[in-house]
């Protein structure tokens, strides 16, 4: 596995995010446009994971506040799941965010993404009240981890 730090303008990041957005169509349902609006923003800190030079996963982070990084766009191609790729990506994103001075991490995910929630819990995230634009959104679960 090879991890490449880049931005969300990277062609392989864009390719993976397009697959992720397709995957989310059924999951997000009528709220699809809401989530697309908040998720399809430029990320100065994006990561692409390669297996044998093939892009297989991605993620990134953005500043939420001076001490908190928000984890964004975590995705592993369905053909490459159950190999520890998501954990590898998440660990690298957290390390990169720490290098930039962040001491805690937050994220939002769908309650339907049970494997993602399990990964986040396994790596120290806890469910918190929804934050920001996710307040009052029933199809959202927000989580936090102290760095």
UniProtKB/TrEMBL annotation:
Pfam families: Acetyltransf_1 (PF00583). InterPro entries: Acyl_CoA_acyltransferase, Bact_Acetyltransf, GNAT_dom. It comes from the Bacteria. Residues 1-147 form the N-acetyltransferase domain. The keyword Chaperone does not apply. Keywords: Acyltransferase, Transferase. The keyword Nucleus does not apply. This is GNAT family N-acetyltransferase. It comes from Flavobacterium luminosum.
């Amino acid at each position: 596995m090879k991890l490449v730090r880049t931005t969300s303008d990277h062609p392989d990041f864009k390719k993976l995010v397009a697959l992720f957005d397709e995957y989310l169509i059924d999951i997000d349902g009528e709220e699809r446009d809401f989530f697309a609006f908040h998720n399809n923003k430029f990320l100065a800190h994006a990561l692409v994971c390669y297996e044998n030079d093939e892009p297989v996963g991605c993620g990134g982070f953005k500043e939420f506040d001076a001490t908190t990084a928000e984890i964004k766009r975590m995705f592993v191609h369905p053909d490459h799941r159950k190999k520890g790729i998501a954990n590898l990506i998440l660990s690298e994103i957290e390390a990169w965010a720490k290098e930039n001075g962040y001491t805690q991490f937050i994220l939002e995910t769908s309650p339907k993404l049970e494997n993602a929630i399990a990964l986040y819990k396994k790596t120290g995230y806890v469910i918190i009240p929804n934050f920001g634009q996710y307040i009052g959104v029933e199809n959202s679960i927000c989580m936090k981890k102290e760095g």
